[in-house]
Design brief:
Layout lengths: L2 E4 L9 E3 L11 E10 L2 H8 L12 E2 L3 E9 L11 E5 L13 E5 L3 E3 L6 H5 L2 H14 L7 E5 L4 H12 L3 E6 L4 H7 L3 E4 L12 E6 L5 H4 L3 E9 L6 H7 L2 E4 L6 H12 L7 E6 L3 H10 L5 E5 L2
Parallel strand pairs: 9-10, 9-12, 10-11, 12-13, 13-14, 15-16
Antiparallel strand pairs: 1-2, 1-4, 3-5, 3-7, 3-16, 5-6, 6-8
Bound molecules: NADP nicotinamide-adenine-dinucleotide phosphate.
The site of NADP nicotinamide-adenine-dinucleotide phosphate (NAP) has 29 residues, from helix 1, helix 3, helix 4 and strand 10.
């Protein structure tokens, strides 16, 4: 099968297209999916660059990619909630036991798979798993955001931020979002009540006493504790929180590791099918242009997600 592989760690120059990769074997508890579309996440670039090699050494050749949407081609032993022919989406990154989604077929643990939202196409569905599950885990599971509460979302134009703004508004919160200058209009369109241009403003002089902060931009983590009110909560997508700072400000601080679980994906499908949550796709590429897609993703500051159509 065709697959986007690497044979060693590095920049985009190590990305190769293989036409004779082996179709992944399906283990117990896994599904084999014919991949119709995939999308890129920061972790895909980090894995390729070798930043995670101590935590998760790859065996080469290794297929890149995690997010996917496609059709179940085979189910492994013990899989009962998904069957051959189902249209599904989920996460198949090597980091979480999958075989990599930038390929004609991928194997994924069934607990990271769910039926895809019926109302959107494969490309839009593939844009959702990790970013959407991240937004749901942060806003509904950790923060438990309620009507009238105030939340600051750093990185409002990104994959996670663009969904998190919409989700926070669904919970009838007051939403401030930080974005770069060219994305102010977008953040307002997504529903933000207040938009901070991080290029020209210091958010700590504008935001005070908020119930929650979702940190989707690493540069803003250290200054975010002080804008949360006592008893409030900070969720970091971008690295370990500082427990001492959290204690000093009297807040809860959580380092999130997104699960991309079936239940999170089901919740995402429900929100998308009811028209309450809309995926944001910046640009779509084909599998043959995967290296170009990574270059675009890493250099061009996309709004929302970069998608790769495979079928
Ligand atoms: N912990 C986990 O399980 C997990 C899961 C998924 C993602 N992540 C991490 O979460 C972060 C966000 O993910 P993502 O998929 O949303 O990434 P993304 O699509 O690249 O979005 C990040 C956004 O942040 C904006 N940004 C950059 N610097 C900023 C700043 N100083 N203040 C405010 N916004 C800023 C960028 O916009 P401009 O380019 O216009 O500046 C971009 O839109 C990444 O670091 C990713 O690695 C963690």
């Amino acid at each position: 099968m065709k697959a986007i592989i690497i044979n060693n760690y590095g920049g985009t120059e190590v990305i190769e297209t293989s036409n004779d990769s082996q179709k992944p074997a399906v283990k117990a508890g896994q599904v084999l999916v014919e991949v119709h579309a995939a999308s890129l996440n920061r972790i895909d670039s980090a894995i390729r660059a070798g930043y995670l090699h101590q935590m998760m050494p790859l065996s080469f050749p290794s297929v890149l990619g995690g997010d996917f949407a496609g059709i179940v081609a085979e189910v492994g032993e013990g899989v009962i909630n998904v069957k051959t022919g189902d249209e599904v989406y989920g996460y198949a990154g090597a980091f979480l036991g999958g075989s990599g989604s930038l390929a004609e077929y991928t194997s994924a643990s069934v607990d990271k798979v769910s039926k895809k939202p019926r109302s959107i196409d494969m490309a839009a569905a593939a844009s959702l798993p990790l970013a959407g599950a991240s937004a749901i885990q942060a806003i509904e599971e950790h923060i438990k955001l309620r009507k009238g509460q105030k939340i600051l979302i750093h990185g409002g134009s990104g994959g996670i931020g663009s969904l998190a703004i919409q989700l926070a508004k669904l919970h009838e919160a007051y939403v401030a979002a930080s974005v770069s200058t060219s994305n102010i209009k977008l953040a307002k369109q997504l529903g933000a009540d207040e938009v901070i241009d991080y290029k020209t403003n210091d958010f700590t002089s504008i935001i005070k006493g908020y119930d929650a902060v979702l940190v989707g931009a690493a540069e803003e983590l250290n200054n975010s504790y002080k804008v949360v009110k006592k008893g409030g909560i900070l969720v970091s997508m971008v690295g370990n929180v500082d427990e001492n700072l959290a204690k000093e400000y009297g807040i809860t601080a959580i380092t999130q590791m997104t699960q991309t679980s079936t239940s999170q994906l089901k919740r995402l499908s429900e929100l998308v099918e009811s028209g309450k949550l809309k995926p944001l796709i910046d640009k779509t590429f084909t599998l043959n242009n995967a290296r170009e897609a990574f270059e675009y993703f890493e250099q061009k500051h996309p709004r929302g997600k970069v998608v790769i159509k495979i079928k």
